[in-house]
Amino acid sequence: MRVFVIVATVGRADLLQRTVNQLAKQTRQPDGIVISASTSADVGELEQNSELPLEIIFAEKGLPRQRNAGLRHIAGRADIVVFFDDDFVPAHNYLEALEEVFTLRPNLVGATGKLLADGIKSSGISFDQGAAMVDAHQPADIIQERSLPALYGCNLCVRMSAAENIWFDETLPLYGWQEDVDFSFQLGRNGILIYTNLLTGVHLGMKGGRTSGKRLGYSQIANPVYLLHKKTIPPKLAWRLMSRNFIANLARSFYPEPHVDRFGRLQGNAVAFYDLCAGRLHPQRILQL
């Protein structure tokens, strides 16, 4: 199989350099690595320092746009593509296990792996900590898998033959909150989506380069509502996301975590609810906030 990696990135050139260098440790090397950036500053000196099969492309800023640019760039050249966040550190056998899993299961169209740790739920994990976790990781003795309605985007694996005419929705701007659910839910109509512990890694959850608290808070309401109308998100998941995030932002705005702009998110939630009542709720409205 021809296995490609796509990494969309903005504003984290130093981190990107370390993340890409980590891919050199894969027991099965990728057939290509596509870095989709918005400006040359996003990649720094990456091309000059890498000995990997690296290709750098540029697209308009926004995670869906940058990931779509990567898909267009590898059209006809890849059998499997894995989208890694620029702050995801895969286990050294990730691509080897990926190829094996997809080869043995022709009806498998998408997969996401087990996170040894997820810094998005905390103040973040340093690259050195993440790399140490990966170095110490041993492949699982007991396989754990389950079917999923949609996949987590920090390590999203796709069978390209099942993804024809499926694109990340560019209506979801900037960070594109829940673009992974929208894309993979459509992909799942063509086969099976799974979580598997054969694929593992660490999501560092770095905070730099992400959208503002107010904008994210607006997206926490606007994006699930938009996807509900589009019918590309499980309704239970949409309502759970909106209610859970609103309640957390409301409750923790009085005693917020140091790394989370809870009041900003709550403001964004409030603006979104107002826009919903006014009939003008839309994901693109965050560009005006």
From TrEMBL:
Record-annotated Glycosyltransferase 2-like domain positions: 5-103
GO MF, one annotated term: glycosyltransferase activity
Top-level taxon: Bacteria
InterPro entries: Glyco_trans_2-like, Nucleotide-diphossugar_trans
Gene3D superfamilies membership: Spore Coat Polysaccharide Biosynthesis Protein SpsA, Chain A
Annotated keywords: Glycosyltransferase, Transferase
Signal peptide coordinates: none
UniProt KW Aminoacyl-tRNA synthetase keyword: no
Pfam families listed in its UniProt record: Glycos_transf_2
Family: Belongs to the glycosyltransferase 2 family.
Listed name of the protein: Glycosyltransferase
Organism of provenance: Sphingorhabdus profundilacus
